[in-house]
Design a protein that fits this description.
This protein is 84% helix and 0% strand. It has helices at residues 3-33, 35-61, 67-86, 88-116, 123-142, 151-178. The model has no long low-confidence stretch (mean pLDDT 82).
Length: 185
Protein backbone atom coordinates (compact mmCIF):
# COMPACT_ATOMS: atom_id res chain seq x y z
CA UNK A 1 0.00 0.00 0.00
CA UNK A 2 1.42 3.38 -0.97
CA UNK A 3 1.47 6.54 1.08
CA UNK A 4 -1.09 8.12 -1.27
CA UNK A 5 -3.45 5.17 -0.75
CA UNK A 6 -3.01 5.29 3.04
CA UNK A 7 -3.63 9.03 3.09
CA UNK A 8 -6.73 8.71 0.90
CA UNK A 9 -8.09 5.90 3.07
CA UNK A 10 -7.46 7.83 6.31
CA UNK A 11 -9.05 10.99 4.88
CA UNK A 12 -12.08 9.02 3.67
CA UNK A 13 -12.52 7.38 7.07
CA UNK A 14 -12.18 10.72 8.86
CA UNK A 15 -14.87 12.26 6.62
CA UNK A 16 -17.15 9.27 7.19
CA UNK A 17 -16.58 9.47 10.94
CA UNK A 18 -17.34 13.20 10.89
CA UNK A 19 -20.61 12.50 9.04
CA UNK A 20 -21.51 9.80 11.59
CA UNK A 21 -20.72 12.20 14.43
CA UNK A 22 -23.05 14.84 13.00
CA UNK A 23 -25.76 12.20 12.46
CA UNK A 24 -25.32 10.84 16.00
CA UNK A 25 -25.49 14.34 17.52
CA UNK A 26 -28.63 15.11 15.50
CA UNK A 27 -30.26 11.88 16.69
CA UNK A 28 -29.31 12.86 20.26
CA UNK A 29 -31.05 16.22 19.83
CA UNK A 30 -34.20 14.49 18.54
CA UNK A 31 -34.06 12.13 21.52
CA UNK A 32 -33.79 15.07 23.92
CA UNK A 33 -36.71 16.84 22.23
CA UNK A 34 -38.88 13.70 22.54
CA UNK A 35 -37.85 12.23 25.92
CA UNK A 36 -40.97 10.11 26.47
CA UNK A 37 -40.57 8.30 23.15
CA UNK A 38 -36.85 7.87 23.85
CA UNK A 39 -37.58 6.46 27.31
CA UNK A 40 -40.24 4.08 25.99
CA UNK A 41 -38.00 2.79 23.18
CA UNK A 42 -35.07 2.43 25.61
CA UNK A 43 -37.27 0.54 28.04
CA UNK A 44 -38.60 -1.82 25.38
CA UNK A 45 -35.04 -2.42 24.18
CA UNK A 46 -33.92 -3.18 27.74
CA UNK A 47 -36.90 -5.49 28.19
CA UNK A 48 -36.03 -7.48 25.08
CA UNK A 49 -32.39 -7.61 26.15
CA UNK A 50 -33.49 -9.08 29.49
CA UNK A 51 -35.68 -11.63 27.70
CA UNK A 52 -32.71 -12.65 25.52
CA UNK A 53 -30.46 -12.87 28.58
CA UNK A 54 -33.06 -15.04 30.31
CA UNK A 55 -33.20 -17.29 27.23
CA UNK A 56 -29.42 -17.61 27.27
CA UNK A 57 -29.53 -18.43 30.98
CA UNK A 58 -32.11 -21.12 30.23
CA UNK A 59 -29.70 -22.74 27.77
CA UNK A 60 -26.92 -22.64 30.36
CA UNK A 61 -29.26 -24.03 33.02
CA UNK A 62 -28.65 -27.52 31.70
CA UNK A 63 -25.02 -27.28 32.83
CA UNK A 64 -25.88 -26.02 36.32
CA UNK A 65 -25.44 -28.27 39.34
CA UNK A 66 -27.98 -26.44 41.53
CA UNK A 67 -31.05 -25.70 39.47
CA UNK A 68 -33.45 -24.38 42.15
CA UNK A 69 -31.84 -21.00 42.76
CA UNK A 70 -30.85 -20.69 39.12
CA UNK A 71 -34.40 -21.19 37.80
CA UNK A 72 -35.72 -18.62 40.25
CA UNK A 73 -33.29 -16.06 38.78
CA UNK A 74 -34.25 -17.17 35.29
CA UNK A 75 -37.94 -16.70 36.06
CA UNK A 76 -37.30 -13.22 37.46
CA UNK A 77 -35.27 -12.30 34.37
CA UNK A 78 -38.11 -13.39 32.10
CA UNK A 79 -40.72 -11.56 34.21
CA UNK A 80 -38.68 -8.34 34.28
CA UNK A 81 -37.99 -8.63 30.57
CA UNK A 82 -41.64 -9.24 29.69
CA UNK A 83 -42.73 -6.41 31.98
CA UNK A 84 -40.33 -3.95 30.35
CA UNK A 85 -40.86 -5.14 26.77
CA UNK A 86 -44.64 -5.27 26.86
CA UNK A 87 -45.46 -2.60 29.46
CA UNK A 88 -42.95 0.14 28.63
CA UNK A 89 -44.66 3.03 30.43
CA UNK A 90 -44.78 1.14 33.72
CA UNK A 91 -41.18 0.13 33.06
CA UNK A 92 -40.17 3.74 32.46
CA UNK A 93 -41.67 4.79 35.81
CA UNK A 94 -39.87 1.96 37.62
CA UNK A 95 -36.56 2.53 35.85
CA UNK A 96 -36.75 6.25 36.62
CA UNK A 97 -36.96 5.52 40.35
CA UNK A 98 -34.06 3.06 40.05
CA UNK A 99 -32.06 5.67 38.13
CA UNK A 100 -32.71 8.30 40.81
CA UNK A 101 -31.54 5.98 43.58
CA UNK A 102 -28.51 4.87 41.57
CA UNK A 103 -27.43 8.51 41.19
CA UNK A 104 -27.80 9.13 44.92
CA UNK A 105 -25.77 6.01 45.75
CA UNK A 106 -23.15 7.03 43.15
CA UNK A 107 -22.89 10.45 44.81
CA UNK A 108 -22.31 8.87 48.21
CA UNK A 109 -19.66 6.48 46.85
CA UNK A 110 -17.89 9.26 44.94
CA UNK A 111 -17.78 11.38 48.07
CA UNK A 112 -16.26 8.52 50.06
CA UNK A 113 -13.70 7.90 47.31
CA UNK A 114 -12.90 11.62 47.08
CA UNK A 115 -12.00 11.81 50.75
CA UNK A 116 -10.01 8.59 50.54
CA UNK A 117 -7.74 10.18 47.90
CA UNK A 118 -4.97 12.67 48.57
CA UNK A 119 -6.18 16.22 47.97
CA UNK A 120 -3.91 16.73 44.96
CA UNK A 121 -5.20 13.75 42.93
CA UNK A 122 -8.42 15.36 41.72
CA UNK A 123 -10.57 15.32 44.81
CA UNK A 124 -12.30 18.52 43.73
CA UNK A 125 -13.43 17.04 40.41
CA UNK A 126 -14.73 13.93 42.15
CA UNK A 127 -16.63 16.05 44.65
CA UNK A 128 -18.08 18.15 41.82
CA UNK A 129 -19.19 14.97 40.04
CA UNK A 130 -20.65 13.69 43.31
CA UNK A 131 -22.59 16.91 43.82
CA UNK A 132 -23.96 16.79 40.26
CA UNK A 133 -25.04 13.15 40.70
CA UNK A 134 -26.68 13.94 44.04
CA UNK A 135 -28.58 16.96 42.69
CA UNK A 136 -29.76 15.07 39.61
CA UNK A 137 -30.72 11.98 41.64
CA UNK A 138 -32.68 14.01 44.18
CA UNK A 139 -34.31 16.06 41.42
CA UNK A 140 -35.51 12.83 39.79
CA UNK A 141 -36.69 11.29 43.08
CA UNK A 142 -38.43 14.41 44.45
CA UNK A 143 -40.43 14.77 41.24
CA UNK A 144 -41.06 11.04 40.76
CA UNK A 145 -43.20 9.66 39.09
CA UNK A 146 -43.59 12.89 37.10
CA UNK A 147 -39.86 12.88 36.35
CA UNK A 148 -40.45 9.69 34.35
CA UNK A 149 -41.64 11.90 31.50
CA UNK A 150 -38.19 13.44 31.02
CA UNK A 151 -35.43 11.76 33.04
CA UNK A 152 -34.51 8.61 31.13
CA UNK A 153 -35.18 10.04 27.68
CA UNK A 154 -33.28 13.24 28.37
CA UNK A 155 -30.30 11.42 29.87
CA UNK A 156 -30.11 8.85 27.06
CA UNK A 157 -30.51 11.60 24.47
CA UNK A 158 -27.81 13.68 26.14
CA UNK A 159 -25.44 10.70 26.16
CA UNK A 160 -26.06 10.10 22.44
CA UNK A 161 -25.58 13.82 21.70
CA UNK A 162 -22.30 13.97 23.64
CA UNK A 163 -21.13 10.81 21.85
CA UNK A 164 -21.80 12.54 18.53
CA UNK A 165 -19.99 15.72 19.57
CA UNK A 166 -17.02 13.66 20.77
CA UNK A 167 -16.90 11.83 17.44
CA UNK A 168 -17.02 15.16 15.58
CA UNK A 169 -14.14 16.51 17.68
CA UNK A 170 -11.99 13.42 17.17
CA UNK A 171 -12.74 13.24 13.44
CA UNK A 172 -11.95 16.92 13.03
CA UNK A 173 -8.66 16.46 14.87
CA UNK A 174 -7.73 13.53 12.62
CA UNK A 175 -8.67 15.52 9.50
CA UNK A 176 -6.62 18.47 10.76
CA UNK A 177 -3.64 16.23 11.43
CA UNK A 178 -3.88 14.78 7.92
CA UNK A 179 -3.78 18.18 6.17
CA UNK A 180 -0.05 18.89 6.77
CA UNK A 181 0.96 15.44 5.47
CA UNK A 182 -1.19 15.59 2.37
CA UNK A 183 0.73 13.97 -0.49
CA UNK A 184 1.57 16.14 -3.46
CA UNK A 185 -0.31 15.45 -6.69
Amino acid sequence: MTADTLFADAAKRARWSLFMGVLTAAIGVVMIIHPIVTAAVSTVFLGWALIMAAAAQFVFAFTSHTAGNFFLKLLLGVLYGVALAFFPLAGVVTLTAVLGWMLVVEAILETVIAFALPAVVGRGWLLLSSLASLVLGLLILFHWPGSSAWAIGTLVGTAVFINGITRIAISSAVSGALRPVQPSA
